[in-house]
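Example record

The entry below shows one chain as it appears in the dataset: sequence first, then structure tokens.
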Amino acid sequence: MHTITHTGAAPEATRPHHAAVIRMDHRSARLLYLETDACIDGGSFEVDWEGRTFRQTPADARHGSGRTHPDASALFAAVADAVSRAGHVALVGPGSAKREFVQWLREHRRHIADRIEAVEDLDRVTDGELAAAGRRMLHAPAGRRVWARNQPG
């Protein structure tokens, strides 16, 4: 069994928010809520992989890479609960975790999946860079978004 630790969330994180940006990989997620004039700390989610469960993604099996990724369902559920308070969501990160999160949302939390407006590959960023990327992605004209919300992930 693995546990999810959620740390650092500001008290204001429990109320509804206009938008959120998430930086996610298979081990962690960083959440910031974006308001017109503020950026509110939604906290960090870390997975303790004690008693690991691993799986091979279909893309890895197809290409014969042999790589495995941890089953991030518990992480996805914790992040989905936190991001459910945001009206619009941008998602960034390295690798495939962000697209797997969108697919998980489509299967388990459709009402939240419909709020994902942009997904972009982005590796290590500071909180300021994460907030700026989220604002840029969410305020781009609809035709110029990196990933349309109804498009397959």
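Notes for this example: The longest strand covers residues 39-48. Strands lie at 3-7, 17-24, 28-34, 39-48, 54-55, 69-70, 86-93, 116-121.
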